[in-house]
Amino acid sequence: MTDSTAITTTYVAQPGVFSSAIAFDEAQRFAKALASSTLVPQQYQGQQGLGNCIVALGFARRMNIDPLMVVQNLHVIHGRPSWSSQFIIGLINGCGRFSLLRYEITGKGETLACTAVATDLASGQELRGPEVTMTMAKKEGWATKSNSKWLTMPELMIRYRAAAFWGRLYASDMLLGIQSQEEVVDIQPVSVSESPATSVADLNAAIAKPAPEPAPALEPIPAADDDELF
Amino acid sequence: MENADYHAHPAISKSHLDLIARSPLHYWARFIDEKRIIPEPSAAHRLGSALHTHVLELHKWDREYAVAPDGIDRRTKAGKEAWAAFEVDAAGKTMLSRDEADHVMHMGRAILSHPAAAMLLNLPGEAETTHMWTDGATGLECKCRPDWLTSDGAIVVDLKTTEDASPTGFRKSIAQWRYGVQAAWYTFGLEQATGTRPMQFIFIAVEKKPPYAVAVYAADEQMIEHGMKTAMRDLAKLAECKAADRWPGYSDQIEMISLPAWMSGSKTTQPIEEIQEF
Q1: ipTM of the assembly?
Q2: Pairing of strands B125-127, B131-134
Q3: Residues in chain A within 8 Å Cβ distance of B199
Q4: B155/A200 CB distance under 8 A
Q5: If exposure means fewest CB atoms within 10 Å of the residue's CB, which of A4, A83, B215, B228 is most exposed?
C-alpha cells in the first residue's frame, strides 16, 4: 500500500526562487511553461495559476525534487497549501535518513489507535510518533464533521494522521512546515480576537466596498483529492 | 418602550447627570419638585427628535409628525378652515413648519449620503432601545437609550445636530453638552445591562444649516475615561443629595471670581481643555 511509495530525494537545499532577481526571472520562465501544461492540476494552469507555479517551483528548488511532483501533491485547501498524506509518507520513505514508516495498530472501532514508527538509520534509534486514537479524532472534531472520511475509512485516516504527526516531529525540515491535506480539512484555524471588525480602521475599511477580487492563488479546491485517497 | 415613557421613567439618565452637575437645585426643580412644570421642548430639541425619527425610524414619521401645509392664509375664511382641518389631523403629533421639515429632510439625506454614516446605519441593528441597570455603588436605577445599537452590541451610534461639525467645532459641542459623559454612560450602562461592552461609541454630527455637512467621529479612550470619571462623580453627588434630601444651588457665600483661564494670559489661544473642565 502506501508503504511502497518512496520518493527519492537527495536533500540539498538550493537557493530559492526569491533569492535574487535573476533566480526569480528564471523561475518565471519555468512557471510559464509549467502553467501552460495540461498535466498540472487546474489551480496551476494558465495565467491565473502562474503565481501558484512560482510558489511550487520555490518548494521544488528547496526540496530538490521535480516541480511536477510538487504541483501534483501540493494542494490548496481552505486557502492553505497542504501536502497529500501519501506524498509526506513518500518523502519520509525515500529520503534515505529513515527506515520505512511502520504503523502500530491497537484496538478496533472506538478504541482504534495508531502510532507511526521508523528507525533513524544514522543512529539506529527507533523514532515513535504520537499515538493517534479515535477518541482524539472525536474530541478534536475531525471525526464529527459531516462527510468526514474518519467515519467511512478510519483505518486509513488514522495511519495518514499518525504519519503526518511523525513527519512533523522527525522530518519537519522536509515538510517545510506544511500540513497534510487531511489535516487542513480537519483542522481549521479559529479566530480568537474578540471583535475583529470594530476598530475604527476596520470600519473605515468597510466603507469602500468594491467586491474583493478573488485571489486565484488561494482558491480552495472543494475537498481532498479523492483520486489521491482511494 | 416609547420615547415619552423612557423620558418619564424615573431611572437616572445622562440628562439627569447633566442637571445634577449644574447644581442639585436645578435637578430638584426639574425632577423632584412636585409643582414642577415640564417645559415645552425647544425648537432645536424638536428638530433633533424629528431628525432621529426621519433617519432611524422613518416608519413612525407619519404617526408622530405633522407638517404644516404651505400657503395657508389664515386671515381668509378658506385659510382658517384649511388650518382647522390640519390641526385636527395633527392632534397628538408634533407640529413642524414646512421650513423645519425641509431642514430635517436635508439633514437626513446628508447623513445617508455620507459613506461612513450610511455604512454604520446599514449594519444590522436596532434604533432606540431602552436599557436599564442598577448602579452597584449607589444602588440607583439607571437607564440609557442608544440611537442605534448594532445587533452584536459592538457599536453605538449617536446622531447629533450641531452648528459646526468640524473637529474643532464638534470638540466644543463635546465639552458644552458633555458628550464624553454620554459616551461613557452608554458604554458602561450597556455593559451592565446586556453584558456586552460596546467597542465603539460613534457620533454622526450633522450641521443644521446648508450645506448640511456631516462628519463621523469615534470617541477615543481618553474621552470615555474622562466621561466615566465625571459620570461617577455626578452619580455619587446625586445619591448624596437624595439620601439627605438636600438640594443646594450655587454657593451661599461670596466667592471670588477671575478671568477664565484662557483669558488670563497663561495660554495664548482658547484651548478646548479649559472648556472641558465642565
Answers
A1: 0.71
A2: unpaired
A3: 194-195, 198-199
A4: no
A5: A4
Q: How far apart, in whole angstroms, are the C-alpha atoms of residue A177 and residue B87?
A: 78
Phi, psi of B208 (to 5 degrees): -80, -10
- Contact between chains at A203 and B119 (C-beta distance less than 8 A): yes
Percent of chain B with pLDDT strictly greater than 70: 95
pLDDT for position A5: 60
Distance from CA of A212 to the nearest CA of B (A): 17
Q: Which of B115, B152, B155 sits opposite A207 (nearest CB)?
A: B115
Residue numbers in A near B200 (CB within 8 A): 198, 200, 203
- pLDDT for the residue numbered B266: 58
Nearest residue to B238 via CA among B159, B170, B137, B168: B137
Give the whole-angstrom CA distance, residue B134 versus residue B239: 13
CA of B155: which chain A residue's CA is closest?
A198
Alpha-carbon span B30 to B35, nearest angstrom? 10
Predicted TM-score (pTM) of the model is 0.55
Closest CA to B100 of B254, B209, B219, B13: B209
A6 against A62, higher pLDDT: A62
CA-based angle A196:A198:A204, to the nearest 5? Answer: 115
Inter-chain CB proximity B116 and A198 less than 8 Å:
no
* Beta-carbon contacts of residue B192 (< 8 Å; ≥ 6 apart): B133, B135, B142
CA B260 to chain centre: 27
Could you tell me whether strands A102-106 and A126-128 are parallel, antiparallel, or unpaired per DSSP bridges? unpaired
Does the pLDDT of residue A132 top 80, yes or no? yes
For the residues B86-92, what does the mean pLDDT come to? 83
Judged by a CB distance cut-off of 8 A, whether residue B154 touches chain A is yes
Q: Is the peptide bond prior to B211 cis by the omega test (within 30 degrees of 0)?
A: yes
Q: Are B52 and B159 in contact (CB under 8 A)?
A: yes
- Based on C-alpha coordinates, what's the Rg of chain A? 20
